[in-house]
Amino acid sequence: MEHLNRGGFDFDLCNRNNVLEKTGLKMKGFMKTGTTIVGVVYKGGVVLGADTRATEGPIVADKNCEKIHYIADNIYCCGAGTAADTESATALISSKLKLHKLSTGKETRVITALTMLKQMLFKYQGHISAALILGGIDINGPSLHTIYPHGSTDQLPYVTMGSGSLAAMGVFEAKYKNDMTKEEAIALVAEAISSGIFNDLGSGSNVDVTVIETTGVTILRNYQTPNERKFRNNPYIFKQGTTPVLKQDVAPLSTKVVIEDIMMS
Amino acid sequence: METLKLSALPEKDKQQPISHGRFEAYVDNGGTVMAVAGKDYCVIAGDTRMSDGGYGIQTRKYTKVFQLTKKCVLATSGMQADTIALQKRLKSMLESFEKEHGKPMSTPAIAQFLSNTLYYKRFFPYYTFNLVAGVDEQGEGWIWTYDAVGSHERVKYSSQGSGNQLVIPLLDNQVAKFNQQIVEGNKDVSCEQVVSFVKDSITSAGERDIYTGDFADIVVVDKNGVHWEKFELKLD
């Protein structure tokens, strides 16, 4: 019974996974997001950007997935790494923040989201493969943070993460300046993400942009779509009967379902 | 009592051999090639993207289709260095043959010759996945598909490379008419229809395979010779 209340970190399942792998069990591959994600602080707020490609090894699993996640009304988070990890980490902290806001009665702060995320990721010692860009605006003004899978964080005016981060950072280092206007910031973010999309094979498809300012949030889903399909053959037509029907069972709906009229009061 | 060991160095038998990174001879530069044979023509397609094996692009303009004679082309995916070495080797042997025999090598002969060349390096293979496509002396369309060490088979259609598994099912369904109870359409398909279908196939491969994209060479071989067309794919 004593092992139940040891306290501290419990990595029994990680040990079990390693043992299983050694005996030959092949673990199912994870869906990674490849990814280029960026964030930039401008004069009145924060602009976040992301590409929309999700990969499973060399294959594109999703051509238009969403990588900018809602954390709170004034805080959004881009995620790179294992898709399930970024989804569940951001959803969990978003939920915790909602309860926290009701408990405190105050507007959520970016550093609260930051602290919750980093403490969770550190607790899991990097096994949760989520590399995040957290951006938002609160009583202390606009702020932008990066969070690494092991739990370290940075606060910076411009950030990039993911496999396309080097391509995107090249653009930022050349063109970033302090106190940009909203239009300049959006254009810069779109250019950085495009750089990732075209030069990194792990990133692709469309550019998503989210603008967070004091007046509210503007979600520009598919802000740019520079990768529409270029060629399409005449449609392939398969006549009825192409796939042989072996058995058919037709029953009127009323024998399976009871249909009632209910008076709505 | 155990003797005290006073040494800063680890004991002889516990010394780990210094492990350098092993020399990796092969790299897969990615890309997809495919070919479909008609009655008196062949349509071959190959994308032009070259990757570094990881997430980077080395070039967008590396042609994977190589013309061997007026009636035969070679399409190769896999490692670029081995592809070029193989192309050079074949080219020089073809030229010798032509000088010795007074005529160019026929397509079936080239097909066999490539197999021999690949098997010659059975124990240090060319990391190449080949397709030989062309017309024979009578003008009939031929395609041969190879593995890395020369096993080959004459087929009506084939594909190789990173997008192979995306393209083959499409060819199986539309060219060989597999898994269809009622087969639609005429038996004889025109060259233009096949070219359109091949463009569609390689575009589809480019959608879902990160190593396929940029541009594609669409090559038609018939009794009149070899005709090249450049076709755009997505750059992302």
From TrEMBL, chain A:
SUPFAM superfamilies noted in UniProt: N-terminal nucleophile aminohydrolases (Ntn hydrolases)
Xref: Pfam families: Pr_beta_C (PF12465), Proteasome (PF00227)
GO biological process: proteasomal protein catabolic process
Entry keyword Cytoplasm: yes
Classification via Gene3D superfamilies: Glutamine Phosphoribosylpyrophosphate, subunit 1, domain 1
Start and end residues of each Proteasome beta subunit C-terminal domain: 226-261
Molecular-function GO terms, alphabetical: threonine-type endopeptidase activity
This protein's UniProt keywords: Cytoplasm, Hydrolase, Nucleus, Protease, Proteasome, Threonine protease
Chief localization: cytoplasm
Subunit organization: Component of the proteasome complex.
Entries under PANTHER family matching the protein: METALLOPROTEASE TLDD, PROTEASOME SUBUNIT BETA TYPE-7
Summary of the function given for this chain in its UniProt record: Component of the proteasome, a multicatalytic proteinase complex which is characterized by its ability to cleave peptides with Arg, Phe, Tyr, Leu, and Glu adjacent to the leaving group at neutral or slightly basic pH. The proteasome has an ATP-dependent proteolytic activity.
Family the entry assigns: Belongs to the peptidase T1B family.
Protein name as it appears in the record: Proteasome subunit beta
Source organism (scientific name): Dictyostelium firmibasis
Native organism taxonomy: Eukaryota, Amoebozoa, Evosea, Eumycetozoa, Dictyostelia
UniProtKB/TrEMBL annotation, chain B:
Pfam families, per database record: Proteasome
Main location: cytoplasm
Subcellular location: Cytoplasm; Nucleus
Signal peptide range: none
GO BP annotation list: proteasomal protein catabolic process
Signal recorded as keyword: no
Entry function: Component of the proteasome, a multicatalytic proteinase complex which is characterized by its ability to cleave peptides with Arg, Phe, Tyr, Leu, and Glu adjacent to the leaving group at neutral or slightly basic pH. The proteasome has an ATP-dependent proteolytic activity.
Protein name, as recorded: Proteasome subunit beta
Native organism: Dictyostelium firmibasis
Lineage of origin: Eukaryota, Amoebozoa, Evosea, Eumycetozoa, Dictyostelia
